[in-house]
Amino acid sequence: MRSFFVLISVLVLVLFANNAGAQSGRVNPNSPTDSSAPNPASEVSVKQMFEEANAYAKTKFAEYERSKTPYSEKLRLQTVRDQKQLAANYAAVSAARASLSGEDFYYAGLLHWIAENLDGAAENFRQYIKTENAPVEKIQTSRSIIAIAAAKRKRFAEAEQILIEYLKTDPTKLSERARMESELAKNYREEKNLAKAAPHAVEALRATKALFQESASRAKGLDELLDAGMNVFEIYRDSGKQAEADAALEDLRSTAAFVESPSFYYYAVDKQIRYLIETGRKPLGLSTYQNALTQTTKVFAQKPSQTYVLDRLKRREKHYKLLGEPAPALADIDRWFPGQPQTLEALRGKVVLLDFWATWCAPCIETFPHLSEWYQDYAKDGFTILGITRYYGDSEEGKVDDAAEIEYLQRFKKTHRVPYDFVVAKGQANQIYYDATAIPTAVLIDRKGVIRYLESGTSNTRIEEMREMILKLLAEK
Predict the structure, then answer these.
(1) The predicted structure's pLDDT at residue 101
(2) Interacting residues of 147 by C-beta distance below 8 A, sequence separation 6+
(3) Which structural domains are found in the chain, ordered by start?
(4) What are residue 387's DSSP bridge partners?
(5) Which phi and psi angles does 75 have, rounded to 5°?
(6) Phi and psi at residue 375, in whole multiples of 5°?
(7) Does residue 169 come out as left (phi exceeding 0), alpha (psi in the -120 to 50 range) or beta?
(8) Is 333 helix (H, G, I), strand (E, B) or coil?
């Protein structure tokens, strides 16, 4: 089968090569101007251009499904990029027209919105709001997008005023309100204005809960609920409002039980336990763990759901017990390179990341660029990383002895441009001490030698969580 990139290129060429006079009515904004040829911009309305751009990704994925093109994240991202580019081209075509009026401004605004041109979207929607006898529903949608764009640009006074105007006009849509409130909360939080962020986050969660039953996709609805709930928790946590943060996590757990999602429920309980330990309430955290084991069978009637939550929680028990405790000393170390062997005790005063990994572990290797970047950015602030592995008897040439494996590890380190030290153990003692038998496992140790973070696996969310924890620990002197 042809590569994804070739396939995408062909699809895009087909899209833009269609003659504007064909029945599809597609505009070809990149074609040379020919005064003798029909002007594509005069043949297709702004609304038609929007409808095509808006449906682009959905249409393409239907084509991929028919042609049995395997899904990949690269394919998805490329398709979305192509959709944005198409919308940008059509927005440029609409902007070149001298006769835009009324509804044209609305659909031009939507084209700019798809293309992520915030200023272009807001300007066209402002023009649309001035239109006489415009449908109030479209005026409200226009207001909601202007408010979102203003929040993203950190123009908070404008965003707040538009939100007020939106709320005092009927009809209002929960989906539009949720997005406006969420965007204000997110951007206030980025500006460290947590007092302003909190009420917007609470309103966004309220609207998201009300919308859940109407969601076309349960998975999407659950993601939105989790994001909204975590936003409330994190704002209160970062504000130092422990009681409010506790209540937000309890609400997250109750919501997960109500929607009967075992993965959501596990996530909420795990976050609850870790937050209690992180805030110096480890006995309560461990009792919450024990309580969750009992409650799970009452919360979920179905055996598979019970099993999922219980298995996940039980696999975390040792992690919970290690969190907040002094880090065990590294044992049975055979080689340490390129630096000199050190003890964790000697590294007190630094924030230390232990990265348990192996050469055959693809997810481990995927984290290297992030770890390398953090090492280079934060080493001056007292951060270091130790890549902990052990002898597996493997190399690119197959089974080897220890000496040959060390040579392989040295080549591997150079190939992947890993700047921090590798530590090679003789056996599994360290993995057992840190309950790191599943890899990758990351352990963050604070300046006092205490374990503050311990997680197995990797994901974009996990990477961001680790980065935030590193910054938090570096800020502690």
Answers:
(1) 85
(2) 158, 159, 162, 163, 166, 180, 183, 184
(3) 241-323 (no CATH), 333-475 (3.40.30.10)
(4) 355, 422
(5) -65, -40
(6) -60, -45
(7) beta
(8) strand
Rounded to the nearest 10 degrees, the angle between the axes of helix 103-114 and helix 136-152 is 40
Q: For the sheet containing 351-356, what is the strand order?
A: 333-337, 421-425, 383-390, 351-356, 441-445, 451-456
Q: Report the alpha-carbon distance of residue 445 to residue 326 in Å, rounded.
A: 8
Cβ neighbour number for residue 69 with a 10 Å cutoff: 18
Q: CA 215, CA 207: separation in Å to the nearest integer?
A: 12
Q: What is the dihedral of CA 319, 321, 326, 331, to 10 degrees?
A: -60
Q: Phi/psi at 409 (nearest 5 deg)?
A: -65, -35
How many residues make up the chain in this entry?
477
Pairing of strands 441-445, 333-337: unpaired
Which residue in 390, 411, 413, 391 sits closest to 402, CA to CA?
A: 391
- The closest of 391, 419, 421 to 405, measured between CA atoms, is 391
CA 371/CA 72 separation, integer angstroms: 25
| Residue 330 to residue 269: CA distance in whole angstroms | 31
pLDDT for 42 equals: 54
pLDDT at position 387, please? 98
The single residue listed with the structure tokens 């066209």 is: 124
Shortest CA distance to 450 belongs to which of 324, 346, 345? 324
Closest CA to 253 of 233, 270, 268: 268
Weakly modelled stretches of the chain, pLDDT under 70: 1-42
Q: Say how far apart CA 189 and CA 86 lie, in whole Å.
A: 33
Express each pLDDT in 186-208 by its tens digit.
Answer: 999 999 999 999 999 999 999 99
Percentage of residues in the chain having pLDDT higher than 90: 85
Q: Is 286 exposed, middle or buried (0-12, 13-18, 19+ CB in 10 A)?
A: middle
DSSP 8-class letter at 328: P
CA atoms within 13 A on the CB side of 216: 1
Residue indicated by tokens 């494996």: 405
Greatest extent of the chain over all pairs of C-alpha atoms, in Å:
81
Check if the beta carbon of residue 225 is closer than 8 Å to that of residue 264: yes
Q: What are the Cα distances from residue 375, in Å, to 70, 76, 418?
A: 36, 31, 10
Nearest to 309, CA basis, from 442, 286, 452, 301: 301
| Cα 36 from Cα 17, distance rounded (Å) | 18
